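U., I forgot to send this yesterday:
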Amino acid sequence: MRAFLTLLLLTIVSTTFAARLGKCQGWSVAPLTHSVGGKSTFRANDEVTLKWNVGISQVKYIREVTLSSAKSNQPLHTQLRSYPGIKASNGKITFKLSVPLCLQREGEYFLNVVASTPGKEGDCLATTPSFRLTPEPNKDYSVCK
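Result:
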């Protein structure tokens, strides 16, 4: 009986995992770019463009974009949250890169992009390649602990 239950559980988990992979497979995000100009580093409040390709996936909406530290992989600051989300068929979104003062000294970042497929919320995740952010000059960082 125990072996049967283990087999049943493994079947359910593997089927669920395979279905999830199939729905998200082929979806990817491109490196973050400046909306205007081709600077190599970013600053807080720069206008940026995030592009993605749904490929053969079933991704329908982009639900959330979060700035994360490339050093610690920790999520730091939400850039966008929308319900049901931005239509994935748009292929891109432009926004101001929001980075609170005390988070600007991490140095290297990436964006986590959460997408949804039909009937699911936030079931696909992709990340941008890491990028550098230059802290704002002439700011008082002494308030940061």
